[in-house]
Amino acid sequence: MLKHSFTKTGQDRHNRRSFEVHPVRAPSFLAISFALVTAFAGPVAAKDPIPVTVDVAKVMRISAPATSVVVGNPGIADATMQDRQTLVITGKMAGVTNLVVLDAKGQLIADEMLHVVKPQTGYVTVQRGALRQSYACTPHCNATIEPGDEMGYFSVSNSQLERRNDLGRNNALLP
Q1: What pTM did the predictor assign?
Q2: I want to staple 102 with a disulfide (CB 3.0 to 4.6 A). Which of 3, 23, 68, 83 is the partner?
Q3: What is the CATH classification number for the domain harbouring 102?
Q4: In Å, how far are 47, 64, 74 from 101, measured between CA atoms?
Protein backbone atom coordinates (compact mmCIF):
# COMPACT_ATOMS: atom_id res chain seq x y z
CA MET A 1 0.00 0.00 0.00
CA LEU A 2 1.31 3.46 -0.83
CA LYS A 3 1.21 6.17 1.74
CA HIS A 4 -0.22 9.26 0.09
CA SER A 5 2.41 11.91 -0.25
CA PHE A 6 3.71 14.48 -2.66
CA THR A 7 6.96 15.78 -4.09
CA LYS A 8 7.81 19.38 -3.59
CA THR A 9 10.95 21.35 -4.13
CA GLY A 10 11.46 24.71 -2.57
CA GLN A 11 13.37 26.71 -0.02
CA ASP A 12 12.97 26.90 3.73
CA ARG A 13 12.18 30.57 4.26
CA HIS A 14 14.07 30.73 7.57
CA ASN A 15 17.30 28.90 6.73
CA ARG A 16 17.23 29.38 2.96
CA ARG A 17 17.98 25.70 2.36
CA SER A 18 16.49 23.58 -0.39
CA PHE A 19 14.33 20.65 0.47
CA GLU A 20 12.45 17.85 -1.26
CA VAL A 21 9.67 15.68 0.02
CA HIS A 22 9.34 12.32 -1.75
CA PRO A 23 6.60 9.71 -1.69
CA VAL A 24 7.13 7.07 0.96
CA ARG A 25 6.35 3.45 0.21
CA ALA A 26 5.29 1.94 3.52
CA PRO A 27 2.41 -0.23 4.56
CA SER A 28 -0.14 1.57 6.64
CA PHE A 29 0.29 0.92 10.37
CA LEU A 30 -3.49 0.84 10.71
CA ALA A 31 -3.84 -1.80 8.00
CA ILE A 32 -1.20 -4.05 9.57
CA SER A 33 -2.69 -3.63 13.05
CA PHE A 34 -6.17 -4.46 11.79
CA ALA A 35 -4.93 -7.55 9.96
CA LEU A 36 -3.07 -8.85 13.03
CA VAL A 37 -5.96 -8.23 15.40
CA THR A 38 -8.54 -9.89 13.17
CA ALA A 39 -6.23 -12.83 12.39
CA PHE A 40 -5.44 -13.69 16.00
CA ALA A 41 -8.42 -12.42 17.99
CA GLY A 42 -11.27 -13.87 16.01
CA PRO A 43 -14.77 -12.40 16.21
CA VAL A 44 -15.24 -10.69 19.58
CA ALA A 45 -18.20 -8.52 20.43
CA ALA A 46 -17.21 -5.73 22.81
CA LYS A 47 -19.91 -4.91 25.31
CA ASP A 48 -20.47 -1.45 26.64
CA PRO A 49 -19.72 -1.12 30.36
CA ILE A 50 -22.64 -0.71 32.74
CA PRO A 51 -22.77 2.93 33.88
CA VAL A 52 -23.07 3.39 37.66
CA THR A 53 -23.01 6.65 39.63
CA VAL A 54 -21.13 7.08 42.93
CA ASP A 55 -23.46 6.70 45.95
CA VAL A 56 -26.39 5.60 43.77
CA ALA A 57 -27.94 2.11 43.76
CA LYS A 58 -28.75 0.51 40.40
CA VAL A 59 -30.90 -2.60 39.90
CA MET A 60 -29.59 -5.27 37.51
CA ARG A 61 -31.71 -8.22 36.43
CA ILE A 62 -29.84 -11.38 35.47
CA SER A 63 -30.94 -14.10 33.08
CA ALA A 64 -30.62 -17.12 35.42
CA PRO A 65 -30.67 -17.77 39.18
CA ALA A 66 -27.33 -16.84 40.74
CA THR A 67 -25.60 -17.96 43.91
CA SER A 68 -22.36 -15.94 43.79
CA VAL A 69 -21.55 -12.35 42.91
CA VAL A 70 -17.99 -11.02 42.80
CA VAL A 71 -16.88 -7.43 42.20
CA GLY A 72 -13.29 -7.13 40.99
CA ASN A 73 -12.52 -4.02 43.04
CA PRO A 74 -14.95 -3.63 45.96
CA GLY A 75 -13.52 -0.16 46.61
CA ILE A 76 -15.11 1.02 43.34
CA ALA A 77 -18.50 -0.73 43.50
CA ASP A 78 -20.54 -3.07 45.65
CA ALA A 79 -23.08 -5.66 44.50
CA THR A 80 -25.63 -7.45 46.66
CA MET A 81 -28.21 -10.05 45.71
CA GLN A 82 -31.75 -8.85 46.32
CA ASP A 83 -33.03 -12.22 45.16
CA ARG A 84 -31.51 -14.93 42.94
CA GLN A 85 -32.13 -12.95 39.74
CA THR A 86 -31.83 -9.37 40.98
CA LEU A 87 -28.63 -7.55 41.92
CA VAL A 88 -28.27 -4.11 43.45
CA ILE A 89 -25.06 -2.39 42.37
CA THR A 90 -23.84 0.68 44.27
CA GLY A 91 -21.04 2.93 43.06
CA LYS A 92 -18.50 3.75 45.77
CA MET A 93 -15.71 5.59 43.95
CA ALA A 94 -15.11 6.67 40.36
CA GLY A 95 -13.30 4.01 38.35
CA VAL A 96 -13.71 0.84 36.31
CA THR A 97 -14.07 -2.69 37.65
CA ASN A 98 -15.78 -5.92 36.67
CA LEU A 99 -18.75 -7.87 37.98
CA VAL A 100 -18.91 -11.67 37.80
CA VAL A 101 -22.13 -13.61 38.48
CA LEU A 102 -22.06 -17.41 38.92
CA ASP A 103 -24.78 -20.05 39.27
CA ALA A 104 -24.90 -22.92 41.81
CA LYS A 105 -22.60 -25.06 39.65
CA GLY A 106 -20.03 -22.26 39.36
CA GLN A 107 -20.96 -21.59 35.74
CA LEU A 108 -20.68 -18.04 34.47
CA ILE A 109 -23.98 -16.19 34.12
CA ALA A 110 -22.58 -12.71 33.57
CA ASP A 111 -19.19 -11.04 33.30
CA GLU A 112 -19.73 -7.30 32.94
CA MET A 113 -17.60 -4.18 33.21
CA LEU A 114 -18.83 -1.46 35.58
CA HIS A 115 -17.94 2.16 34.85
CA VAL A 116 -18.49 4.18 38.03
CA VAL A 117 -18.62 7.96 37.63
CA LYS A 118 -19.12 10.90 39.95
CA PRO A 119 -22.52 12.61 39.72
CA GLN A 120 -22.60 15.33 37.09
CA THR A 121 -24.38 17.79 39.39
CA GLY A 122 -24.33 18.60 43.06
CA TYR A 123 -20.56 18.28 43.66
CA VAL A 124 -18.08 21.10 44.11
CA THR A 125 -14.31 20.81 44.25
CA VAL A 126 -12.37 23.62 45.91
CA GLN A 127 -8.76 23.83 44.75
CA ARG A 128 -6.36 26.03 46.75
CA GLY A 129 -2.97 25.61 45.12
CA ALA A 130 -2.13 21.92 45.52
CA LEU A 131 -4.79 21.41 48.22
CA ARG A 132 -8.18 20.06 47.19
CA GLN A 133 -11.46 19.69 49.11
CA SER A 134 -14.72 18.14 47.91
CA TYR A 135 -18.28 19.07 48.82
CA ALA A 136 -21.73 17.68 48.05
CA CYS A 137 -24.05 20.62 47.42
CA THR A 138 -27.74 19.71 47.22
CA PRO A 139 -28.47 22.69 47.75
CA HIS A 140 -26.44 23.27 50.95
CA CYS A 141 -22.80 22.16 50.81
CA ASN A 142 -21.54 19.42 53.12
CA ALA A 143 -18.08 17.90 53.27
CA THR A 144 -17.55 14.76 51.26
CA ILE A 145 -14.32 12.97 50.48
CA GLU A 146 -12.68 11.90 47.27
CA PRO A 147 -9.31 10.27 46.65
CA GLY A 148 -6.90 13.12 46.02
CA ASP A 149 -8.38 15.47 48.63
CA GLU A 150 -5.91 17.15 50.99
CA MET A 151 -4.91 14.62 53.69
CA GLY A 152 -5.91 16.68 56.77
CA TYR A 153 -9.30 17.54 55.27
CA PHE A 154 -9.79 13.93 54.14
CA SER A 155 -8.99 12.51 57.61
CA VAL A 156 -11.24 14.93 59.53
CA SER A 157 -14.11 14.58 57.04
CA ASN A 158 -13.76 10.77 56.97
CA SER A 159 -13.89 10.64 60.77
CA GLN A 160 -17.03 12.80 60.83
CA LEU A 161 -18.71 10.77 58.08
CA GLU A 162 -17.94 7.49 59.88
CA ARG A 163 -19.38 8.89 63.13
CA ARG A 164 -22.54 9.99 61.32
CA ASN A 165 -22.91 6.54 59.75
CA ASP A 166 -22.41 4.88 63.16
CA LEU A 167 -25.14 7.06 64.67
CA GLY A 168 -27.49 6.08 61.85
CA ARG A 169 -26.78 2.36 62.34
CA ASN A 170 -27.23 2.62 66.11
CA ASN A 171 -30.53 4.50 65.77
CA ALA A 172 -31.77 1.89 63.28
CA LEU A 173 -31.33 -0.79 65.98
CA LEU A 174 -33.54 1.02 68.52
CA PRO A 175 -37.11 -0.35 68.93
Answers
A1: 0.59
A2: 68
A3: 2.60.40.1380
A4: 16, 10, 14
